[in-house]
Design a protein that fits this description.
There is one protein chain. The protein has 388 residues and is α/β, with parallel strands linked by helices. The chain has a domain of 250 residues: Alpha-Beta Barrel (TIM Barrel), CATH 3.20.20. 34% of the residues lie in helices and 16% in strands. Strand 11, helix 7 and strand 12 form a beta-alpha-beta unit. Helix 10 runs antiparallel to helix 11.
């Protein structure tokens, strides 16, 4: 039931609204115009770097530019494009031996979703039990403390059936798998059902999760379904143990623990990846997991500082880290803009509204750093397998 192709995945992460087709150079917390057609038009730019997989941000109908506030799971947001655009992107990718994975967000939806609007206005609605109302209609469980994102009750069989069917529906268009958002929200019971039903219909699809424990204090524990909450309350969430919880119900996991290790080490300067202490630490970390559980490696993403922030703009240090990750033989994600040398000078702060805009800037296609682009391309060429 494993997606064997994924072990060699070199993944390019795209935020659809910020990549191509953007109508302005201003970076604002609103839709800027990026779309699926733009990705198709820039496909060679991605392919030529050496990537064999593209990870798309959510493309469903939404009321936020980044796509994570879903208002309809059954419809592509017209600002991103159409069904035909999605089909054409998938077809273009597959013709070039490139896979397409997309974000899937089953834990929560926008308060603007019609199901929640009905449930919060009519207690007898069939959708009432699709959510966790503490005191109807205004007090409900949400994504951590984000009241605009209402938590779905996936232990309700009807809700679980709907979400699983939605996942299957979009896979039927040829999508090759999902990066699953906030997997610590739903229960392990749900994930077991989800995993085996998806794999029964789409055995080659890949399912890898985001289990990120950073900043989640015990006051949010009622919104998540992690195991051993008692110990986590006492000692805090162990990222190592949290990632391991999903062996057997996911093909793999985003490796936030390795990301922590690398960020801690990069402050030591050039040559950090060749140090014996660092390599032992990484080896011990990898030994915590079975070989058939994919640890999906990355240096940064849309929620955190770009890696160059920690490198203080040192491109050589960034390339050293990328090369080290390529030597591990594990799936690797590169966040869009890395190849152009993008980085933030103002840090992302969890409690500062829209501070993540600093790492979600639109691509400036008139100012691509092709010198660095080609250096990164050469690295990928060096380590890409030619027999797949």
């Amino acid at each position: 039931m494993k997606a064997d192709w994924f072990k060699d995945a070199k993944i390019y992460q795209i935020m659809i609204d910020r990549f191509a087709g953007v109508k302005t150079s201003l970076n604002k917390p609103e839709f800027l115009g990026g779309n699926l057609k733009g990705i198709i038009e820039r496909f060679d730019y991605i392919k030529n770097l050496g990537f064999n997989t593209i990870w798309l941000s959510p493309f469903w109908k939404t009321n936020k530019y980044h796509g994570y506030h879903i208002t309809d799971y059954e419809t592509i947001d017209s600002r991103y494009g159409s069904i035909d655009d999605l089909k054409r992107l998938i077809e273009t990718a597959h013709q070039n031996s490139v896979r397409i994975v997309t974000d899937f967000v089953p834990n929560h939806c926008s308060v603007k979703h019609l199901f929640f609007i009905e449930a919060s206005s009519n207690r007898k609605s069939r959708y009432y039990n699709w959510f966790y109302f503490k005191h109807w209609p205004d007090d409900y469980l949400c994504f951590l403390n984000e009241k605009e994102l209402v938590k779905l009750n996936l232990d309700n069989p009807e809700t679980a059936h709907y979400i699983i069917d939605i996942a299957k529906y979009w896979l039927s268009f040829g999508i090759d798998g999902y990066r699953i958002d906030h997997i610590i929200g739903p229960s392990h019971k749900f994930w077991k059902k989800f995993y085996f039903e998806i794999k029964d219909s789409f055995p080659e699809s890949v399912l890898f999760g985001e289990a990120w424990g950073a900043g989640i204090s015990s006051k949010y524990f009622e919104t998540i379904h992690i195991r051993n909450k008692f110990w986590h309350r006492l000692f805090g969430i162990s990222q190592e143990k949290l990632q391991k919880q999903y062996c057997g119900v996911m093909d793999g996991i985003l490796d936030f623990r390795l990301n922590q290790i690398i960020i801690e080490e990069v402050s030591k300067g050039k040559g950090f990846t060749s140090g014996k202490e660092f390599r032992n630490k990484v080896r011990n970390h990898f030994n915590h997991y079975p070989d058939d559980y994919y640890l999906v490696l990355f240096l940064d993403n849309h929620d955190m500082n770009r890696f160059l922030f920690y490198c203080k703009g040192d491109f050589d240090l960034l390339l050293e880290a990328v090369e080290f990750l390529l030597t591990t033989g594990k799936p690797l994600i590169i966040y869009y803009g890395t190849e152009t040398g993008s980085f933030n000078t103002i840090p992302v702060q969890v409690n500062m509204w829209h501070s993540d805009l600093n790492v979600r800037e639109p691509v400036n296609w008139s100012r691509i750093n092709y010198e660095f682009y080609n250096r990164l391309k050469a690295l990928f060429c060096k380590y890409n397998r030619t027999d797949t």
